[in-house]
Amino acid sequence: MRKRYTTIKDIARVLGISVATVSRALRDSYDVRPETRKKVLDVATELNYKPNFNATGLVRQSTHNIGVIIPTITNYYFSTVITGIQEVAQRNDFNIILYITNDSPENEIRIVKNLSLSSLDGLLACVSSQTNFYTHFQDLIDDGLPVVFFDRVVPTIHTSKVMQDDFNGAFMAVETLIKSGYNKIAHITGPKGLQLTDNRLLGYYAALDQYGIASYPEWVIHSGFSQKDGEEDALKLLGGERVPDAIFAVNDRKAVGAILALKRNAIKVGEEIGVIGFTNDPISEIVSPTLSTIAEPAYEIGLKSCELLLKHIRKSHFEAQEVILESRLIQRESTIRSISRQSS
Amino acid sequence: MRKRYTTIKDIARVLGISVATVSRALRDSYDVRPETRKKVLDVATELNYKPNFNATGLVRQSTHNIGVIIPTITNYYFSTVITGIQEVAQRNDFNIILYITNDSPENEIRIVKNLSLSSLDGLLACVSSQTNFYTHFQDLIDDGLPVVFFDRVVPTIHTSKVMQDDFNGAFMAVETLIKSGYNKIAHITGPKGLQLTDNRLLGYYAALDQYGIASYPEWVIHSGFSQKDGEEDALKLLGGERVPDAIFAVNDRKAVGAILALKRNAIKVGEEIGVIGFTNDPISEIVSPTLSTIAEPAYEIGLKSCELLLKHIRKSHFEAQEVILESRLIQRESTIRSISRQSS
DNA sequence: GTGAAAGCGCTAACAC
DNA sequence: GTGTTAGCGCTTTCAC
Fold first, then answer.
1. Which residues of B45-77 are buried (b: 16+ CB within 10 A; e: fewer)?
2. pLDDT recorded at residue A344
3. pLDDT at residue A338, as a whole number
4. Of A33, A337, B193, B318, which is the most exposed, with the fewest CB atoms less than 10 Å away?
5. In this complex, which residue's CA is closest to the C1' atom of nucleotide D7?
6. If residue A184 lies in a helix (H) or strand (E), which one and from where to where?
């Protein structure tokens, strides 16, 4: 049987004072006598008092919950972002309520429409890759709910956003390939229309442009974000008329998929075909050859998103901010031509 | 500015009926006229009514929140468990509130002690690996909060628990090594005192016993659960007087660490030293040679834990249950001796 | 079948 | 500095 928890009434009764005083003492209001406060605090600890968030939430019109909508958490990037979010939330006594969309727009819409707004102080969201309509998010914002987007942001909605530097990251990736001696560079990426993939694609084109290197439409392949997509894209590239000598993958999982597919086709990764990814997933150090990549500040993205959201929650007129965090190059074996690679 | 959301009062006013009726209509009580209900439902959708969980929670003494306490989420196993939990929770209209301990007992204790019990209907917990005192959990249970442990369970606390079959999984792992021709088998495992590691250790000994194979104390190394721990343990094994010809690692990350360390020492994994892990983390297919392992039903553990917890929440006298889910062998390259392995 | 009213635990005027 | 009281949105007796 569930126990009744201690309430401020209990404390008031024990001390023979009113609940108002107890409430004030508990919340460090200044208009309460120090000794009274001490007594209240003592009894509170003794009785193991814990505030009832439903009650405070009801009267204050605020809960200490923030929702997090995310496509999946079973990968390095997203789970690390969540860890960052959680860190800030915990430090500020906010709970995070997790909603996983499985990267399905239907799930996303269902979840957002069913959100009990009155039990949420704010929302952190990363949209699913196939989402086209964003009215469900716009509705929330119109209702006054603070929303901060991260990673996969919605360009058309005016609110705070936190991203890594996709354009420059991609530029660096392609530049690295070029400087390592590759000049037939393909790009395997995610679905069209996502700002993140668009920016990386733009970075890819910009680098090629700057170095006067040709690109062909069949060298840019749009598909999903998974390892399997990476394998399939690589195979497609191998089977084409013009076979590239390097692949820039939109993320590490696709890069790993590509590496695995290339190896299966007896192609020496690095030597014959260079591969570079994006993320700095721990697998990039495990795969052989190890994967060069653009490191994303996943944890910091989590921190920053949550901090921004808290600001929106606290100041009702905090102006929307777009934060772009730097990504950085990590060179490993998969983009090295000359060296004879260690076996296995 | 945050909007005021539609309440049952608004609906009542529009329809000129009482809030009581609205409340009843909304919850499918039978004692309300069908046409009244229809009108209420219509207005509710029109006004985009969403119940205020703080209010229902207050009066029903129940929120629809369940807490999840977990050491970390940035690995395959835990993030998959969470995904399973989330699946069941979402289907049953429960929110999950995530607490990450970073595998630190201090964090765990702080989090548990600060839990606002009145805003939680139940708790799912996986203890951190160094936790010795469990009174903070026992207190919750004594207070009547339904708690279900998963994976790393607390042996001394009477409540429902969900685990994989650690003993038989370990037995299978070691048996596989033996049958593949290895007979100097080491075990690198996690901290002492955790039921999970104890059971795997027991399975290790049982298999050795059954096949009449010797073990030496220096072949059983207790350390942490990380890849780095795996590397260090492997190095220690290589530097010892008796060098084993096979390593059974408590999880895949440690196994991968061991493989990397062995490769760095020019040891042919599989051929010279066999390695088997536990989990079936996707990295086990990426590392080269690919890693044999015991697959854990992570997703199912999440599902089952959450289902059990919901039963406890719904029936106040649901008896505690211990569920052990099967693990299964997946053989890959790291335990194959004869075959000449593909390079890189 | 429906309404009036009390109350869940807490905060915030408003008194004194 | 402290008490009284109304009320947050909802459910639930108890009348009628």
1. eeeebbbbbbbbbbeeebbbbbbbbbbbbbbbb
2. 42
3. 67
4. A33
5. A59
6. none
Cβ–Cβ contact A342 with B under 8 A: yes
Q: What is the pTM of this model?
A: 0.93
Q: Give the pLDDT of residue B338.
A: 67
pLDDT tens digits along A76-132? 999 999 999 999 998 998 989 999 999 999 999 999 988 888 888 999 999 998 888
One-letter amino acid of B42: D
Contacts 24+ apart (CB under 8 A), A109-116: A109/A133, A109/A136, A111/A69, A111/B90, A112/A69, A112/A136, A112/A137, A112/A140, A115/A67, A115/A140, A115/B50, A116/B50, A116/B51, A116/B52, A116/B53
Number of helices (H), then strands (E), belonging to chain A: the values are 13, 12
Residue B143 reports pLDDT greater than 90: no
Within an 8 Å CB–CB cutoff, is residue B18 touching chain A?
no
Is B59 (CB) below 7 Å from strand D?
A: yes
Residue in chain B lying closest to A267 (CA): B344
Over 60: is that where the pLDDT of B330 sits?
yes
Percent of chain B with pLDDT over 70: 97
Per-residue flag: B57 CB under 7 A of strand D: no
Sheet holding B246-249, edge to edge: B220-222, B185-189, B246-249, B274-279, B292-295, B328-330
Q: Does the beta carbon of B256 lie under 8 angstroms from any beta carbon of chain A?
A: yes
Inter-chain touch A54–B74, beta carbons under 8 Å: no
Omega before B297 within 30 of 0, i.e. cis = no
Position A343 pLDDT exceeds 70: no
